[in-house]
Structures are given as structure tokens and as C-alpha cells.
Amino acid sequence: MKKFRKIIYLDYAAATPLDVRVLNAMRPFLTSTYGNPSSLHRKGLEAKNAVEKSRKSIADIIGARPEEIIFMSGGTEACNLAVFGVAKHAHISTKIKTSRHKPHIVTTVIEHHAVLEPIKILQKLGWGVTFLPVDMEGLVNIDNLKKAIRKETKLVSVMYANNEIGSVQPIAEIGRVLARINTERGKYGLMPTLLHTDACQAAGAFDLNVNRLQVDLMSVSASKFYGPKDSGFLYVKNGTPTYPIILGGGQERGLRSGTENVAGIVGMAKALEVSVSQRERENQRLAGLRDYLINRLKQKLPKFILNGSSLEGKQVGKEMKNFISSKTSGRYKMMTLGSSKRLPNNVNLAIPGVEGEALMLYLDARGICVSTGSACATGSTDASHVLKAIGRTEKQAKESIRITLGRDTKKSDVDYLIKSLKECIPLILDER
Ligand SMILES: *Cc1c(COP(=O)(O)O)cnc(C)c1O
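# pyridoxal-5'-phosphate complex -> structure
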């Protein structure tokens, strides 16, 4: 492989580099502080203290109680537990008969596979599933969501921000709607409908306060905000009816057995602290770069199609303003309000006639790393389910690339990307 003076990494939605402060926080737990947190001697206690300190720090940031944070091996496990845990509890506690009142779950067509695949298994087991559609911008409609909820609906699972097109759902509004519905349900002696959000992409950028969002379950992955891979947590509100999927020694309040990944947990807590402390400033900077990139693309590649929410945005209501961040500065609001339905670091575009995979390889040959569709669907050649859901044809979906910016991205990188796109595209068009 050709060596470059500099690699321009623009795939932060797939993975982020480990922050050096995070590495330093983790280091002792990879070397000297190796005890098992369940051991009662001093080495065990040392490790346990670190785990509990991290739990408290994360809980404080998201407005939860420490015991509501369940450490997981990443976002996928968290999403799996959110779905299967609630389903398992429903089966064990209420002796569900699959005949007349089959249990029901509501989700969206654009969820990550970590949510979709467990739900498809429930469907095979006889559960009713409503897959809510999204509009052209990749947003769910609240009225559709309300109408989808039945007496038998156990869980609503809606992702906070989409990993491919960056669309941001109004989770706080959905939380409020469900709270009202649950008050009604209570009067009829019905169990509440629980709300899970997959916040893996949103965690580095948006407000995670579980009281403002009114979620019962929330999945977070550390590797998306400059923390270690294979670390994550599931927020499980106290009293949420759920059962574990991994059983054994009873760690994590019995919800996730197995020796804790102490270094991963410490690293995740540190990564979240750092991320939250610079969130507003970094969001503002990234949104500025993103908008610069999109505007330059409009000049240089007038035929491109932006996948996801447009910069102009429609009317941005009070709801939208509130959930971006609890207290954003006036300047940030001005810069990003028009595009607050999109992650500040996400650009997803289709270039007519240019296959995304070819373009990705051409850019890679110039030292630029971007993604086609979604990096998460290993080796899959199917067009992205998300792009199809927002109305793209199979062909357009395959002509799409995802560019996600991050902490090391500078304006000069964006300029180099645009220059490279201008050079690569004619080569691919000629080849055909
Ligand atoms: C990355 C991601 C996941 C999976 O997280 P892992 O830590 O890779 O298991 C789930 N959902 C979304 C939206 C993601 O971006």
C-alpha cells in the first residue's frame, strides 16, 4: 500500500481514534490494576472502586442513578439486551399466548442492525412488529408512532441519530408522547409501553439526559466518542421489567454476567467526560465544516444528491431547539438550527453515475478514508436499507458515500477531499 504523508480519515461514524487522555486513564487497568472487581481482597477492591467511580460519572452526566448504568461490550450488546430483555420479561411474567394477543413492538425502518435483527427474531417467535416509515429526510412522524401503539405494545425502539444519513429523531418529544399514553394505560391497568433509544451515534453530540428524553432504556457505545472499542452501556431505568440475556456470576445487577472490562469501563467514562466538556464547541466547529463541505459540493458537483436532512431545514420548532442541547449558545443555534435534524459531522451524498464503492477505493488511493452505505453491514452487497427507506433507488443507494468528520478534521482536509472528488469522478465515469 502506498504511503501517504497524511491520511485523511473521514469515517468517524464507523470508528473514532482513542483520545490520549482516555488511553492514559485506561493504562493502569491494563497493567498493574488487574484485579477482578468481584474479589474481596485489595486488588479486587481497587478495580471495583474504579468501576463504581466510572459508573457514577456516567450516571451524573446522563442524569441517572449509578445502578441504572449496565456496562456492556458495546452498542450491539446494549441494543440486543434492550430488545430481548424486555421481550423475555414479557414472556416469563405474563405467560404470553401467541394466539390472540400477540405481544407487539414498534420500531423504525432505519434502525441499526443491532436493533433490527433482534426484532426480526421476535417476529419469527410470533411477535407483532410495526416498522415505522420515515420521510425523505429520514425522520419518523409522531402521529404515525402514536397510531402504531396497541394495547399489546411492550416496547418502542427509535434510534436517536442515524449512523448512515445522520438524521436526528425527536426522542424527547416521543418520550413525552409515551408518558401521556402510559398515564392513560395506567387507568386501564395496562403495563406501560417502554421506550428504548439507540443513542450510539448521538452520544458524542447531543443531550443524553434520560429525564429530559424520558427513555426507559438507552444504548451507548464508547467507540463512537473517542473511547475504546467493545465498551458500551445500557441505561436501564429503575423498575424497568427486563431479564438478562447473558447469565452467570450475576455481575451488573444480574443483567450482564461476566468479569467487567475494567479498562474499557474507565476509558468509556473518561471519553464521555471529555466529549461532554467540549461538545458545544466541537458541534459548532463540525457543523461549520459540514456546511462548508456541502456548499462547496453544490458549487463543484451540482448534480449530487444530499441524502438525509437538507441544510435549509424546514421550520425548526421549539422541540427541535430544546433537544439539540439543553443550553446551547446563541451562536451555535444560529449556525446549526437549519440543519439540527442532521448530525453535525455527517454528509451522505449520491453522485449520479458514480458507484460509491469505486469512489471510495479511488479516494482511498489518495489517502482519504470514507464509507459507502454503512460500514457495519460486513461484506454485504445489498443496497443500504436506510437509503432505500428515504426513497432512493437501488442504483442511487449504490452511488452513495458517507463522509463523517471528527476532531482531527480541518478545513484543509475538506478542501483536499473536494479536489480529490473532482479528480476521481471523471476517471470513474470514463471507465464505464
Ligand atoms: C456503532 C453503532 C452500533 C453498534 O455499536 P458497537 O459498539 O459497534 O457494537 C449500534 N447502533 C448505532 C446507531 C451505531 O452507530
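# post-check
Residues 83 and 119 are 7 Å apart (CA to CA).
Confidence is low (pLDDT under 50) at residues 313-338.
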